[in-house]
Design a protein that fits this description.
This protein has 420 residues and is of the alpha/beta class. The protein contains eight helices and 26 strands. The strands form seven sheets. It has a six-stranded mixed beta sheet with strand order 7-4-6-5-9-8, with no helix packed on it. Magnesium ion binds next to loops.
């Protein structure tokens, strides 16, 4: 059962002014209900989508016992013990062109990888270990019965669960579906995620910057993160810092989206109207997350849509997206197999300064070399320094109670999901 936003804020351990990262994730996950609408797609088009059905194997894969090698198929019981047996070749079994004849005592069949095992044969000798001359085919007794034979149904048996509802359609899954002869599957429809930026200082790329203006980069990182997460991004542009503009933004966003994401304007500065508007339009909780970067963040419902109000600083946008939004999207998409990217232990190369009391996500470069797994941070860790994200391949995650960390310490490095 999902929890309402009001119920979340009534939990015993609820403190909006110092919300631990795990608690925030936990609160958000309680309020999520996966979408249920499905569509049928060709398996290639289903790549990156979430299966809305179990896939049960309609056939045995492989469909027949077959050879794992190029070589010679024979009956193991026909070999003389401890020596070489001279057998007579009675035919050839090619992949897709089986040998249908009988195989008598001390007879063998030339066979190729993937070819059907001739009836009566149980073992395949690798071609490099066998000689053929005018006397026949010389096969040693160095294999066990059944070696180099693949069994019918050893990959999947008819009726076996091949792929689970709620799993991601990966390249391997597309291949497996094809191996079962399945051309179409049922997947959940894409999540529609509307997003907009807020800020008087923001200009879209293509326009010329005036005094004090900057290019709006968050809309482009958010678009890219959504696209990669298999969502349908809906870019609503940038809204200036007035209550009217921001109200219009929310109305447009929540009208036809499952999720609404904004960046900027969630602190409580003079021009931060997000909170004011949401008190009017939705049910939203504003949190100061005990983390760096990404301290102010909002979560709630606007219209029927889930709402994530991310901070304005470009690095904070990415950190909060990957720590909170990404897994929430996966749940809403119907994924049951999603997990945050794994954390590995690495030896810290450089010193890190940190105050206890908040979780930090510093940008790191993890390398594997002669000294084992090492990680260094990418220099200036300001939350506006987006180049730190392009250089990094992991977050160095420093727990709440940790203070500064010296070189040589073992730290947690959370690998990025592909290049960020
Ligand atoms: P705010 O949370 O609105 O106070 O913004 C915090 C910082 O992030 C400010 O320096 C903003 O200029 C910057 N910022 C906000 N939105 C964006 C954006 N869409 N692209 C780039 N920088 C932004
Ligand atoms: Mg702003």
């Amino acid at each position: 059962m999902t929890t309402t936003i009001r119920e979340l804020s009534c939990a015993d351990d609820y403190d909006p002014n110092s919300m631990p990262v795990d608690k925030a994730r936990d609160f958000i996950s309680k309020a999520l209900t996966p979408i249920t609408t499905t569509e049928r797609l060709h398996i290639r088009a289903a790549l990156g989508r979430v299966l809305a059905q179990d896939v049960v194997s309609p056939l045995d894969v492989p469909g027949h016992d077959n050879s794992a090698m190029d070589g010679w198929a024979y009956r193991h019981a026909d070999l003389v013990s401890g020596g070489v047996t001279v057998m007579q070749r009675v035919g050839t079994s090619y992949a897709g062109k089986p040998y249908f004849g009988a195989v008598g005592h001390a007879e063998c069949v030339r066979i190729f990888t993937g070819a059907v095992m001739p009836a009566g044969c149980d073992t395949v000798a690798m071609q490099e270990r066998v000689t053929e001359d005018s006397l026949g085919v010389h096969i040693g007794n160095d294999l066990k019965a059944g070696q180099n034979r693949r069994f019918r149904g050893e990959d999947l048996k008819t009726g076996a669960l091949a792929l689970k509802c709620g799993s991601l359609v990966s390249p391997a899954a597309v291949g497996l579906l094809a191996s079962l002869g399945i051309a179409e599957v049922s997947v959940y429809r894409k999540l529609r995620v509307a997003f907009f930026s807020t800020g008087d200082e923001l200009k879209s790329i293509g326009s010329t910057l005036g005094a004090g203006e900057i290019y709006d980069s968050n809309r482009y990182t958010i678009y890219s993160m959504l696209e990669r997460a298999g969502c349908q991004p809906i870019d609503l542009g940038n809204f200036v810092d007035t209550p009217e503009a921001i109200r219009a933004g929310f109305q447009a966003a929540s009208a036809n989206a499952d999720v609404v994401i904004t960046s900027g304007g969630v602190s409580v500065g003079e021009a931060d109207f997000i909170k004011q508007m949401l008190d009017e339009l939705g049910e939203v909780l504003f949190w100061k997350i005990a983390m760096k970067p990404g301290r102010p963040m909002a979560y709630g419902k606007v219209g029927g849509a889930h709402f994530f109000g991310l901070p304005g600083n470009p690095v904070a946008v990415m950190v909060t997206f990957y720590q909170f939004v990404r897994s929430a999207l996966a749940t809403l998409q119907g994924r049951t197999d999603y997990m945050l990217p794994p954390t590995v232990k690495a030896t810290l190369v450089n010193k890190i300064k940190k105050m206890p009391g908040r979780t930090e996500f510093q940008r790191g470069v993890l390398t594997v070399g002669a000294n084992g797994v090492e990680v260094r941070t990418t220099g200036d860790q300001g939350s506006g320094i987006l180049s730190s994200m392009t250089q990094a391949n992991c977050f160095v995650v420093l727990a709440t109670d940790v203070g500064g960390v010296e070189p040589g310490a073992i730290v947690d490095a959370q690998m990025f999901e592909g290049g960020m």
